[in-house]
Specification:
This protein has 372 residues and is α+β, with helices and mostly antiparallel strands. 38% of the residues lie in helices and 22% in strands. It is built from 12 helices and 14 strands. It has helices at 3-14, 20-27, 31-43, 73-84, 94-108, 111-123, 137-149, 221-230, 246-252, 278-290, 307-312, 328-348; strands at 18-19, 48-51, 57-60, 91-92, 135-136, 151-158, 164-177, 180-187, 192-197, 201-210, 236-242, 261-263, 269-275, 322-325. The strands form 4 sheets. It has a 5-stranded antiparallel sheet. It has a 4-stranded antiparallel sheet with strand order 12-13-11-14, with helices on one face. Helix 2 (20-27) crosses helix 3 and helix 4 runs antiparallel to helix 5 (94-108). The relative contact order is 0.06.
Length: 372
């Protein structure tokens, strides 16, 4: 296949639709040459269809058989590595499909690329995240296509309270974060930007109407999502006041979202805690109490290690003052967790009655206050 036709095929694969004038300009040829090259691609089995409109255009349609894709070396390696790590993604049924696709791809990879893929695979490992609900691969693909082509999409959506509604949205970005998939889009019914969890979204349908993209009110999609999650109206709310610098406190949190930790003029900071599940608020409170360095227990040791130091981080309680403003339901849960942890640790030390104050003896008695 001549180089110009390969470039033409690459352009058609990269965007949903091109006008003849755009293709001619990109290739540096006349409209007549573009039409001739399009005819040759059709003869080779590529389903290039003409589109109607003022200027007309061309689109690479879906055929009964997948035609050869044009990939450079970096494309092929990226796809292969992505398939190898797909098992850790929260997409339903993707594991077996990824293995089959990878086997087909590796059969046709040249030896130099096969070695590159093997070296990356042997040197890396993925830990599957199973905390979030799985998302249907077909739904993900349909929304991704709508984002790419700037097509309006309608779908049914169930909010956090379970209420269902029909939405008409300009889709912009898909973001995978915190074990879930999110769609960022402009909701035409609400006349505002919204984020939608894909596990709550059903029956997406592109209405074949193009829209002119708006400017996202954030530096990037990830920043917009983080800000939206922070501002969400959670069911369980609490506020902690910590006598430590905001940066240090932010590093302790599992999800250090923007605006969650605010410095105080008199020193220290306040931490806004919120979630729809009370146990998630408890997780954050425990993270604040534990700290980030484990300096209060364990003693000894220097800070020069890597894996061992990381494993020890958070091992000791912090010394600074922490106060908590929370509803009784959260406080009762924290009380219950504290009692269970006390029972657990005293049983581990051999106490006959885990709830009776334990007499400290032996080597542990020599520990200074704050290290017990």
């Amino acid at each position: 296949m001549p180089g110009r036709m390969l470039r033409l095929l690459s352009l058609l694969e990269g965007r949903r639709e091109w006008s003849g004038a755009e293709l001619a300009e990109r290739l540096g040829v006349t409209d007549r040459t573009v039409r001739r090259d399009i005819d040759r691609l059709r003869e080779l089995g590529y389903p290039v269809v003409g589109t109607t409109g003022v200027a007309g255009g061309y689109r690479l349609a879906s055929g009964r058989n997948l035609p050869p894709l044009l990939l450079d070396d970096d494309d092929a390696v990226a796809i292969a590595v992505g398939l190898r790590t797909a098992a850790s993604a929260s997409v339903a049924g993707i594991e077996d499909t990824a293995v089959r696709a990878l086997a087909k791809l590796e059969q046709v990879l040249p030896p130099r690329l096969r070695e590159r893929v093997a070296s990356v695979s042997e040197a890396t490992a993925g830990v599957p995240y199973r905390g979030g609900p799985p998302v249907d691969a077909g739904l993900l693909a349909a929304l991704a296509a709508a984002c790419r082509d700037h097509e309006l999409v309608v779908f049914q959506y169930r909010d956090r309270s379970g209420a269902a509604s029909s939405r008409r949205v300009e889709p912009y970005h898909l973001v995978a974060a915190y074990g879930r998939w999110y769609l960022i889009g402009y909701d035409l019914h609400r006349d505002d930007w919204r984020t939608f969890r894909l596990d709550r979204l059903a029956e997406p349908f592109p209405v074949r109407h193009r829209f002119r993209p708006r400017a996202l009110p954030a530096e990037d999609p990830a920043a917009f999502l983080a800000r939206s999650i922070t501002a969400a109206p959670y069911r369980y709310l609490a506020t902690a006041t910590v006598a430590a610098p905001a940066d240090a406190v932010r590093a302790r949190l599992i999800l250090p979202l923007p605006g969650k930790v605010v410095p105080r003029a008199e020193g220290g900071c306040t931490v806004a805690l919120g979630a729809d599940l009370p146990k998630l608020v408890v997780h954050d409170v425990v993270s604040l109490v534990i700290g980030d360095g484990g300096a209060s227990v364990g003693g000894g040791g220097d800070a020069g290690g890597d894996a061992e130091d990381d494993a020890g981080n958070g091992a000791g309680a912090v010394d600074e003052d922490i106060s908590l403003d929370a509803p009784d339901e959260l406080l009762d849960l924290l009380d219950a967790v504290a009692r269970r942890l006390l029972v657990l640790t005293r049983r581990a030390r051999g106490s006959a009655d885990p709830l009776r104050p334990q007499q400290v003896s032996g080597s542990s008695a020599a520990r200074p206050p704050g290290r017990r």
